[in-house]
């Protein structure tokens, strides 16, 4: 047994590490790199998949791409001058993340095909015990970077398990299944669906699109970069960073339409309405896609092909609710039965109710899910939680954005994480746990800001809301204000214990 191994009271040998990171998507990979840069090398990343990439490794459906501009959708310390387009396709982002992992030499810190199955706090030893598919660990700190788009949300529809054709979720695309010449149904019209539907419609014999709620769709100004532009990004000092900063500033304007002055969203709604009139000839379809909520209440979609695809004669937009699924058909609540050979579930993900939360058991034995049931889905600065000492949650409660790059928030949180660990070392501290009163006060201060947003008053029910009806997903202010509050670790907000010999 090496000096870094520990033995539990039950006699099980576990490998001990200073920091254990769960997941290697944008958050987990960024954490690994920043730890290495800070000189903290005693860490391991456990990743259930075969490579880095997270959602960009898993979501390989036809048409998959990013709705945030390419130059903004990259780490600030690893800008990519070789983006092919202003909005990048999935495969290109996946290659970028693989390249970043290689460039910063963190692959040897990963255990791939290694799902975390349980994590619990040992209050006696004052550290975490982690069970994985490839053995046990103990860790002084745990960083949960499992991702907000990691667990597909499968619909509970009567008879769906009896369907005898091809059926799969958009995030688990079956590339062995051919949709050519088949009657295909897509359930959902969210961010993934508006990319999938135009990509598969030309090959299907018929495509039925099942829409529960119409959502505003904006134009996407997507174009290929010229070779001379990519050369300039490489050779002209500061050019790419300047463009990135300008894109960032433009994106921050959307805070006005959603948070600061929701009435300004009416201008964007005019753009959305004009887009419908220009791209959909059929007035019945046009009425079906007209949202009944204010723009920004649900995540705005971007597509230049979605509306035109719905206008095809071999595509039918169905707005009646689904009553049941049968062996070879879907029956809607109006009694109509439509034959179908394949079903694509574009039904989104578990966010505030992620099953991952069931795998973390805190100091009092409650899981993160149970703690959320009791307190609501709340965290302190979107990163730490009472009852979970020495644990960081990446992209936690009220740290998300729906108008710009989440990488900005991830890097902001990483400032907090790295400063926390280095402060703990410098002050000879072993544990930290945010004070419950401090956590509650922080969230009480957020609530009035959230109440004024279009997410609450815009007339919709979105995945932004948790089961308590609170918007626990999004940050209700400018993103630079979030970065400012997590720039340094505020030790006074935490109960701490000193290291023992």
Automatic annotation (TrEMBL):
GO terms for molecular function: monooxygenase activity. It is an enzyme of class 1 (oxidoreductase). InterPro entries: FAD-bind_Monooxygenase_sf, FAD/NAD-bd_sf. The keyword Zinc does not apply. Keywords: Monooxygenase, Oxidoreductase. It holds the Pfam family Pyr_redox_3. Its EC number is 1.14.13.-. Gene3D superfamilies: FAD/NAD(P)-binding domain (3.50.50.60). It comes from the Bacteria. PANTHER family: FAD_NAD(P)-BINDING DOMAIN-CONTAINING PROTEIN-RELATED, L-ORNITHINE N(5)-MONOOXYGENASE-RELATED. This is Flavin-containing monooxygenase.
